[in-house]
Design a protein that fits this description.
Layout lengths: L8 H16 L4 H6 L5 E8 L3 E2 L3 H11 L4 E4 L6 E2 L4 E8 H31 L6 E3 L9 H10 L13 E3 L1 H7 L2 H15 L5 E5 L2 H10 L4 E5 L3 H11 L5 E4 L7 H6 L4 E3 L2 H4 L6 E5 L1
Parallel strand pairs: 6-11, 7-8, 8-9, 9-10, 10-11
Antiparallel strand pairs: 1-5, 1-12, 2-4, 3-5
Helix pairs in contact: 1-3, 3-4, 4-5, 6-7, 7-8, 8-9
């Protein structure tokens, strides 16, 4: 169910336009006031942390939107391992344009690099198992396109992008619908009535609920929520390959290896996007 359809030129352009409008407003008056219009300068993107770089491709697009005459020389690409002192790229051209784009480039790259670094680290903890690491919808409003892009760069797998591209029947859906069978049957009727073709993931909390899903059928994946690794292993054994499985709920770097060893196909971790730190980066004149 990998979904990269959100990474369209239109979506990225819309994000950049909105973000620049938020920051620049009616003008970058600091640069307009202090820097001559004809001044040309250069700057380097300096890495001041350690991990995995992300947001380089986006940075190029931001600079291009700010001023198409800016020239960027890449030294490192998205996904590159970096350490303190590395230079990701240089940019040269109108000084005002470099300064106007600077903060948006740094905000995006710092956050994306932090997410990619954390994703790569958690992915390394489940190496040797069949489990794949998934992100979630626990993202920053209006920044989801960049955060999910960073997960991809870090080696993770995108879950659904939003509420519109997958049906996920979670605990509240099940409870409001009147139980597992009622939720699945109502969903199948909805899809038939509307002519939509959407994958169905259903959340289970106990082995009894897993059995109810197996008895009902008509889903695409079974989510095992907030179960211990031991209980997940029992659930995976009960499912016996009939449906892909996904572990979710409170999974940390201390528990993820045991969760992967339970035999699940996917592990979704909200912390990839809602709790990842940033990588310290700086745009320095030289």
């Amino acid at each position: 169910m990998q979904n990269t359809s959100y990474l369209t030129p239109e979506a990225i352009s819309t994000f950049i336009h909105t973000a620049l409008a938020e920051d620049v407003g009616d003008g970058d008056h600091s640069s307009l006031a202090a820097i001559p219009a004809e001044a040309r300068n250069r700057a380097k993107l300096l890495v001041k942390g350690e991990g995995m770089l992300a947001g380089v491709e986006l940075a190029q697009l931001i600079f291009r939107e700010a001023d198409a005459s800016l020239a960027i020389e890449l030294r490192l690409a998205d996904g590159a391992p970096v350490k303190h002192g590395d230079i990701a790229f240089t940019v040269e051209g109108p000084a005002r344009s470099i300064l106007t784009a600077e903060r948006l480039v740094l905000n995006c790259m710092q956050r994306m690099s932090g997410i990619a670094t954390h994703t790569a680290y958690l992915t390394s903890l489940i190496a040797g198992t069949k489990a794949k690491l998934l992100d979630t919808r626990k993202t920053t409003p209006n920044f989801r396109v960049c955060e999910k892009w960073a997960v991809l760069i870090g080696g993770g797998v995108n879950h659904r992008y939003g509420l519109f591209d997958m049906i996920m029947l979670k605990d509240n859906h099940v409870d409001y619908a009147g139980g597992i069978r009622a939720a699945i049957e109502a969903t199948q009727a909805y899809l038939a009535r509307t002519g939509r073709q959407l994958p169905i993931v259903i959340e289970t909390r106990t082995l009894a609920e897993v059995q109810q899903v197996l008895d009902t059928g008509s889903v695409d994946r079974i989510m095992l929520d907030n179960m211990s690794p031991e209980l997940m292993h029992e659930a995976v054994t009960l499912i016996d390959g009939r449906y892909p499985t996904e572990a979710s709920g409170g999974i940390t770097e201390q528990t993820i290896a045991a969760v992967a060893a339970s035999g699940v196909d996917y592990i979704s971790v909200g912390a990839l996007t809602h709790s990842a730190g940033i990588m310290d980066l700086s745009l320095k004149a030289f």
